[in-house]
Design brief:
The complex is a heterodimer. Chain A is α+β, with helices and mostly antiparallel strands. Chain A contains eleven helices and five strands, in the order αααααββααββαβααα. A five-stranded antiparallel beta sheet of chain A has the order 4-3-2-1-5, covered by helices on one side. Chain B has two domains: about 1-85; about 85-125. Chain B contains three helices and four strands; from the N terminus they run ββαββαα. The chains are: A alpha+beta, B mainly alpha. Chains A and B meet through α2, α4 and α11 of A and α1, α2 and α3 of B.
Chain lengths: ~325, ~130
Amino acid sequence: MEVTANTAAENEELWGGGNRPLKASYGKLMMWFFIVSDALTFTGFLVSYGFSRFKNINSWPIADEVFTHFPFLHGIDAPMYYVALMTFILIFSSVTMVLAVDAGHHMQKSKVTFYMLLTIIGGAIFVGSQAWEWKNFIKGEYGALETRGGQILQFVDASSGKRAAIQEFAIGIETDRSTHQSSNGIWYSSEKALPTVTLEEVKKGFIADENLVIRTQQLNEKGQKTVLSRAASMGKLNEAIGVVEGANLIHNEYGNRLFADFFFFITGFHGFHVFSGVVINIIIFFNVILGTYERRGHYEMVEKVGLYWHFVDLVWVFVFTFFYLV
Amino acid sequence: MAAEGHKLAIFRGLLKFKSNQQKIWGVLIFLSIVTTIEVALGIIKPEILMVPFLRMKLLNWIFIILTIVKAYYIAWDFMHIRDETSGLKNSIVLPLLILIPYLAFILIIEADYIFDVMDTGFMSWNF
């Protein structure tokens, strides 16, 4: 009799949700659900990046030549150092987060507060760094010409082997063409700012300087961009239909347009994750200060946002590899 | 997971830490070393590692492996997967471990095919 009754009670508990086979709370499981699905979203992005890259494997831009800036070091070629710094900042903010979680386990409110603050600062620095990286990418450095087929023609000084900026060698031609404003046009239409130099000016400057040659998107056997001879460059010049300065979703002076599209999309989506992570961290930070979790008796909320924060770090590790290293 | 229920050994028990905080700093040092190696290799680009291997440069394979190593320690020690039950651990890791390589594999094979078509086809992509 009593045995039967006990079984009934156990079954009731099992189906009522009292049984916790995974030994994790509802909130934490849901965070893991989210992370697994979000990981698959990022997988989709990064794999489609890989798809485009393998599709254009012999003409893809070289990351070391695109991301060469470092704050306060103007004109110095510093590939990778800046992203490496960003990676260290994010890993370090991950560490302060896990220290906050650990302090939460020991119910040390002041320590949780301090480490959460460091995490928020680290995240904010990272988002700011990413904004700076975007600014440099959008602004561009040397400029290029684009052909009808969307190929990018860059310029190299044959004597020094260094890249030549179109703004520097172009020779000015007097023209009445100016940016069309909505205030003086019909139907209130306007256009984007014109490039600082026109195609004709670049062509004139190129013909005048015997040292300049064209560099195409194609990679040679050594994995470097193909540099044409002066004669071949002169022929190639006539195929150009427009000037490209910097990068946006349609034109990209660094090479394949898809490179810029994926750069904006993937680092943008990741940056948005970091930004929302910072916002969530701030909310939890104030809750910690107010003593919400002290009264609740546990700091599991810190652990849950911690999971999200580490995930953002984890994604960056992959973005770093596939955009900057490989 | 109990407050004191952390597993404190990493590298298959090779390195044991006295407290969870110590383990966190230890993992940070390890991740920093790996990142430094990656960046140094990326800047130096040693000639011996630039040889093709399985249709990619050997250096790129090294980068990908080091990345997965980093991902493992972030997930296992920072996200505490090491301390979770095997059921939870597997239900998080297995779907990703199966789906991600599968998706990458089929799409990259397809991309390689499209590259061949564009490379050897009669269409000019550079006009």
